[in-house]
Design a protein that fits this description.
about 210 residues; alpha+beta; Transferase(Phosphotransferase), domain 1; two-stranded antiparallel sheet; 7 helices
C-alpha cells in the first residue's frame, strides 16, 4: 500500500529488507528531524543547533501536514482511503529543504474513501493527548479522529508546548483542554486577523 503513495507531503517508502531475521523498512531520510524537535527539544534542552521557528515557518509546516493528511483521506491510489491513526508532532518530519511530510504509518487503517461517517472498528492505539473522545469511548475510528489530532498539533505549533505536559497543573496538563494557548512571541509576529483565522480552524478540528 505504501509503495503506491505519491505525494510531496508524505515520506516515501524506498524499499524493504527481509533477510533471515532482519526485517527493515527503508524510507527517505528526513535530515531536519521532527516538528516536535523544533517545537520542544530546543526549549527543553537549550539546543542551539535547532533555530527558533518563525510564525511563517510554523504556518507552512501546518499547511504541508494538512495537505498530506487530506491526500491520505481522499486522494490515495488505493481503493480505500487511509486513516493515519497516529497524527502527532513527532510523526511530522522535515527534509533538507524544510518541506513537511507525514511519517509512520504503522497504525494506519484503510476505510472507504470520501465517506466521513464510515468508521473502522478497532482497539484504541494512539498517543496520549491526541485521540478524540469519540474514538476512545466507542473504538470507532473515522477520518475525524485524524482531524482532531491535527487540531491538537495546530495548537501545539501555536503555543510551542507539548500536547501533554505532566509538569503543569491538572487543568493545564492537556493542551486540547487549555484555553490560554497563544505564545506571546507568536502574537508579536502575526497580524490579528491571520492569527484569529488560524485559531478558528484549529478549534473546528477539535469539535
Amino acid at each position: 500500500m505504501l509503495s503506491k503513495f505519491q505525494h510531496i507531503h508524505l515520506v516515501s517508502l524506498v524499499g524493504y529488507c527481509d533477510d533471515c531475521e532482519e526485517m527493515i523498512l527503508v524510507y527517505d531520510y528526513m535530515s531536519r528531524g521532527t516538528l516536535a524537535d523544533h517545537l520542544h527539544k530546543r526549549v527543553r534542552n537549550g539546543n542551539n543547533s535547532l533555530p527558533s521557528l518563525t510564525w511563517v515557518q510554523r504556518f507552512k509546516f501546518c499547511v504541508g501536514a494538512t495537505h498530506g493528511l487530506d491526500y491520505l483521506h481522499t486522494g490515495t491510489s488505493v481503493e480505500s482511503g487511509v486513516i493515519h491513526r497516529d497524527v502527532k508532532s513527532t510523526n511530522i518530519v522535515l527534509d533538507e529543504n524544510g518541506a513537511t511530510k507525514i511519517s509512520d504509518f504503522g497504525l494506519s487503517k484503510t476505510g472507504p474513501a470520501n465517506q466521513i461517517r464510515t468508521y473502522v472498528s478497532t482497539h484504541v492505539k494512539c498517543t496520549v493527548g491526541y485521540p478524540d473522545a469519540f474514538y476512545v469511548s466507542t473504538h470507532q475510528l473515522i477520518r475525524k479522529s485524524d482531524v482532531y489530532a491535527c487540531g491538537v498539533v495546530l495548537f501545539e505549533v501555536l503555543c510551542g508546548r507539548p500536547a501533554v505536559d505532566k509538569s503543569l497543573d491538572e487543568e493545564q496538563m492537556n493542551l486540547a483542554e487549555w484555553d490560554q494557548i497563544t505564545n506571546p512571541n507568536i502574537k508579536r509576529e502575526t497580524f490579528p486577523d491571520s492569527l484569529s483565522a488560524y485559531i478558528k480552524v484549529a478549534i473546528k478540528c477539535l469539535y
